[in-house]
Design a protein that fits this description.
Layout: E1 4-12, H1 19-35, E2 40-42, H2 60-75, E3 83-92, E4 95-104, E5 107-113, H3 125-128, E6 139-142, H4 145-151, E7 155-158, E8 161-164, E9 167-170, H5 183-188, E10 193-198, H6 207-219, E11 224-232, E12 240-241, E13 245-248, E14 251-255, E15 264-272, H7 273-281, H8 284-290, E16 298-301, H9 326-345, E17 350-353, H10 358-379, H11 383-393, H12 403-410, E18 411-417, H13 423-436, E19 439-444, H14 446-460, H15 473-501, E20 509-510, H16 516-521, H17 542-555, H18 564-571, H19 590-594, H20 598-609, H21 615-625, H22 632-649, H23 684-696
C-alpha cells in the first residue's frame, strides 16, 4: 500500500481586499506545489480576501468577491489533480464563519468553519465571525449559483474530516496556542496529517514559541503537522512573518523563511506514513484512549496522497530550526514591512528627520536594511521586487545592485537644526547619512520658530522665555513644542516637494522614530516629528534599539559608525535638544525630563500590559523586584510618578503614528491597548492603597 505522501504548504504575501493579486499568488503557489509533485496544498488563513479585512467582513461584497475568486480557482487548470485547501469567509444560515474550503478537480469536498477564534491582543475575530460550536456535526450547505455553474453541485456538507483512501486528513485549522487544540482527539481518532492555516504576526522573540508548539503537537501523539501562514504587511500595523513549516513526530522536516521579500514561498515534503504508525504503535496510553474516542464524520474521496509503488521514494529528514536573534529580527521584520508599505502605497520613497540620536539612527538603519533586502532579492532573480523597484524610481531599465546607490534614490534624510542643537548631533547625522547613502539635507528652523513666536508676541503683548532665561515652566514647554511642531510641518513640506525640486516625480512617506517606551510615557510632543505616516520602531524598546545599532555596526560594515562618533551615539544620553545649550553643550536629557530611566519604562510597560498590573499591583510586584535597590517608599514614588505621567499623556496615543507591532506591551490605542484617554490623574483611591501599604511596611 502507499506510504509516502507528498504535501505542500506555503507563505503568501496577501493583501486585504486585493482579490486579483491574491488570486494570482494562490494560483502561483498551487502551480509550484504541483510542479514539485505535491498532491495536497495548504494555504494561509483567509487567503482569498486577505486576513486583515476587519469590518469589511461585514460587507456582502467581501463574501461575493471571495466566491468569485473561488470559482476562478475551481476553473483553473493549475488546480486540477491536486487537493487545494484555501481560506475564505462563508455565510451559512445568515451567520459568518471563517472557513477552509477544500476542493479537488472542480468539486468542493467540504467547507470547514473555524472552531477556536483568535480574540486577544491584535485579534478581533469574534467581532466578525462566529465559532463553529457543533463538534462532529454535519450540516448541508447550499452553494451560490456562481459555484454551482462550475462544479455542478447544488449542496454538500460542512464536515470535519476527509478520508483519502487509507489516509485521514482533518479539514481543520486552529491555533496551536489554544488550550484545547482539537488535534489531540483527532489524532486519537486516527488522523495522521494535521493542517493549520494561520494568520500569525511577528513579535520579537515569538518564533521559537510557535515552532515549539507545532513540534510538541505531534511529539506526544505522533503525526504530520503542516503549518501555513500569511507573510508581509496586508494593510495595517502587523507584519505576518511566514515561518511555514512541516513537522513529523515532534521534529521539523521543512522550514520556511521568517522574513523575505518573496510574495510566494512554497514548502514541499515527502513523508512516510509508516513512520507515524510506528511512532504511535508503542504508545499504550495513547492507544487505550484512542479505543474510547468518539469518531469524527468522514467524507470518502477517491484520491490518494501517495502512490502504490513508493518503497524507493526518498523521504525528508529532520532539520534544525535556525532562529533569528532579536537584533536580526529588528533588521529584517520592519524592513520587509516598510518595503510592502512603500510599493503598495505607490510612493517614491521615504523622508526621515534624522536627529543623530539612537532612535532616528535606528530607523535610518532599518531603511538601509530594506535596501539590502531589495538588492539581494533582485540578485536572486525575484522579478516582482525588480518591477516594484523600477516603478518606485521611475526607471524601466534600472537594476538595484548597490544598497547605498538604491538608498540614495529612495531615501531622504533631513537634519533640522535650531539654536539649541549641538554640533555633535549634526555631525552624527551627516556621517550616518553618508555611510548609508541617503540624500541628506541640512536646514535651520530658527527663522520659522521666531516667526511663530513673533506672531504670538504681537497678538498677546508678551514674549515667552525659556527657564534658563527666567521664564516659567509653562513658557519653557511651549517654546519647546513650537520647535518640535515646526519640524513636523517642514518634514511634510519637504516630503511633498523635495523630489519636485530635483526634477523627479512622486512624493515621500514621512517616517517617525518614537520608540515604544517614549510612547508609553507620553514623552513626545503631540504633532511633532513623532507624527508621521508610519513608524518602523514604534513597537521596539530603547534597550533593543541600542543592541540593534551595535548589530548594524558589525553586520552592515558601517565604517563611519566605528569611529569615535559611534561612542557618542551609543553612550551619549538621549536628548530632545529643545532647550538652550549651556556653554555650547546639551544640558537637557530625556531621562531627566521623564523622571525615569528607559530601563524602568520597559519594566513599567510589561507590568502594565502583560502582567495586567494597575498602580497597586505594580507597587506590590516592584517592592520585591527592586528590594535590593529601592525602599518601599521610593518604589511607591516611582510607581505614582509613572501612572500620573502615563495618564496625563494617554490622549497622545489616540493620534499615535501607525507603528510596526513588535512588542506585547505596546501602548497602541488603535486596537491593541484599549484604554480611556481622559483619566482622573490623581489616582486617589489607588495611591491611598499604596500609601497604606508603605506605612505598614
Amino acid at each position: 500500500m502507499g506510504r509516502a505522501v507528498v504535501v505542500a504548504t506555503c507563505a503568501l504575501n496577501q493583501w486585504a481586499l486585493d482579490f486579483e493579486g491574491n488570486l494570482e499568488r494562490i494560483c502561483r503557489s498551487i502551480a509550484i506545489a504541483k510542479s514539485r509533485g505535491a498532491r495536497y496544498r495548504l494555504g494561509p488563513e483567509l487567503e482569498i480576501c486577505g486576513y486583515g479585512c476587519s469590518d469589511h467582513y461585514y460587507e456582502s461584497d467581501t463574501l461575493l468577491h471571495s466566491f468569485q475568486v473561488l470559482a476562478k480557482l475551481l476553473e483553473s487548470p493549475a488546480t486540477q489533480d491536486i487537493i487545494c485547501d484555501v481560506g475564505m469567509p462563508v455565510l451559512h444560515r445568515n451567520v459568518r464563519y471563517n472557513c477552509r474550503v477544500i476542493f479537488l478537480n472542480k468539486k468542493i469536498l467540504l467547507i470547514r468553519p473555524k472552531i477556536s477564534l483568535a480574540n486577544a491582543g491584535n485579534y478581533r475575530e469574534l467581532r466578525w465571525f462566529t465559532p463553529w460550536n457543533k463538534a462532529r456535526h454535519v450540516e448541508e450547505y447550499f452553494l451560490p449559483r456562481i459555484i454551482q455553474e462550475v462544479t455542478g453541485q447544488v449542496s454538500f456538507v460542512l464536515n470535519d474530516t476527509c478520508r483519502f483512501h487509507s489516509i485521514v486528513l482533518p479539514a481543520e485549522f486552529f491555533s496551536a496556542f489554544c488550550f484545547d487544540s482539537p488535534h489531540i482527539e483527532m489524532g486519537l481518532d486516527g488522523v495522521e496529517i494535521f493542517t493549520n492555516a494561520s494568520g500569525s504576526h511577528h513579535v520579537l522573540r515569538k518564533a521559537h514559541t510557535r515552532v515549539d508548539l507545532v513540534n510538541s503537537a505531534t511529539a506526544k501523539n505522533g503525526g504530520i503537522y503542516i503549518l501555513a501562514n500569511q507573510k508581509g504587511c496586508d494593510g495595517d500595523r502587523l507584519y505576518y512573518d511566514g515561518c511555514a513549516m512541516i513537522s513529523m513526530n515532534g521534529e521539523t522536516v521543512a522550514q520556511g523563511s521568517q522574513f523575505s521579500l518573496d510574495d510566494v514561498e512554497v514548502l514541499v515534503a515527502t513523508l512516510d506514513l509508516e513512520d507515524v504508525r510506528s511512532y504511535r504503535a508503542e504508545m499504550s496510553s495513547r492507544n487505550l484512549a484512542a479505543s474510547k474516542v468518539d469518531p469524527y464524520p468522514r467524507i470518502k474521496v477517491n484520491f490518494a496522497l501517495s502512490c502504490s509503488d513508493d518503497v524507493a521514494v526518498p523521504t525528508c529528514m529532520p532539520v534544525q530550526w535556525r532562529h533569528h536573534s532579536p537584533e536580526e529580527e529588528i533588521s529584517l521584520g520592519p524592513a520587509c514591512w516598510l518595503w510592502d508599505y512603500l510599493r503598495r502605497s505607490k510612493q517614491a520613497g521615504f523622508l526621515l528627520p534624522l536627529s543623530g540620536g539612537i532612535d532616528s539612527s535606528a530607523t535610518a538603519c532599518i531603511v538601509y536594511s530594506m535596501c539590502h533586502q531589495v538588492c539581494l532579492a533582485v540578485k536572486n532573480g525575484n522579478p516582482d521586487v525588480l518591477a516594484d523597484a523600477r516603478r518606485i524610481v521611475n526607471d524601466e531599465t534600472y537594476v538595484p545592485e548597490d544598497p547605498r546607490e538604491f538608498c540614495k534614490r529612495i531615501f531622504t534624510t533631513c537634519y533640522m537644526a535650531s539654536e539649541n542643537s549641538s554640533q555633535d548631533t549634526c555631525n552624527r547625522a551627516k556621517l550616518l547619512a553618508e555611510q548609508i547613502g541617503s540624500y541628506h539635507i541640512n536646514l535651520n528652523i530658527d527663522a520659522a520658530v521666531k516667526a511663530v513666536v513673533g506672531i504670538f508676541s504681537m497678538v498677546m503683548g508678551r514674549t515667552p522665555r525659556f527657564t534658563a532665561y527666567g521664564g516659567s515652566s509653562r513658557e519653557n514647554l511651549a517654546l519647546q513644542n513650537v520647535q518640535a511642531r515646526i519640524r513636523m510641518v517642514l518634514a511634510y513640506l519637504f516630503a511633498q516637494l523635495a523630489l519636485w525640486t530635483r526634477g523627479k516625480p512622486g512624493g515621500l512617506l514621512v517616517l517617525g522614530s518614537a520608540n515604544v517606551d517614549e510612547s508609553l510615557r507620553g514623552y513626545l510632543t503631540k504633532y511633532d516629528c513623532s507624527s508621521a505616516d508610519i513608524n518602523p520602531i514604534g513597537g521596539i524598546s530603547k534597550t533593543d534599539l541600542k543592541n540593534f545599532i551595535q548589530y548594524c555596526i558589525e553586520n552592515f560594515q558601517l565604517t563611519a559608525l566605528r569611529r569615535r562618533v559611534v561612542k557618542h551615539i551609543m553612550s551619549a544620553p538621549p536628548t530632545a535638544e529643545l532647550e538652550p545649550l549651556v556653554d555650547g553643550q546639551v544640558a537637557q536629557t530625556d531621562e531627566a525630563d521623564m523622571g525615569m530611566t528607559y530601563a524602568e519604562l520597559s519594566i513599567y510597560g510589561k507590568l502594565r500590559k502583560i502582567a495586567k498590573a494597575g498602580p497597586y499591583s505594580m507597587f506590590c510586584k516592584l517592592i520585591n523586584m527592586w528590594k535590593e535597590i529601592c525602599t518601599p517608599r521610593e518604589v511607591a514614588s516611582k510607581v505614582k510618578h509613572f501612572f500620573r505621567m502615563y495618564s496625563i499623556n494617554r490622549h497622545k496615543m489616540t493620534t499615535l503614528t501607525p507603528s510596526y507591532h513588535a512588542e506585547n506591551y505596546s501602548p497602541d490605542d488603535n486596537r491593541f491597548d484599549l484604554r480611556p484617554f481622559l483619566y482622573n490623574t490623581t489616582w486617589s483611591w489607588q495611591f491611598k492603597c499604596i500609601d497604606k501599604q508603605v506605612s505598614a511596611l
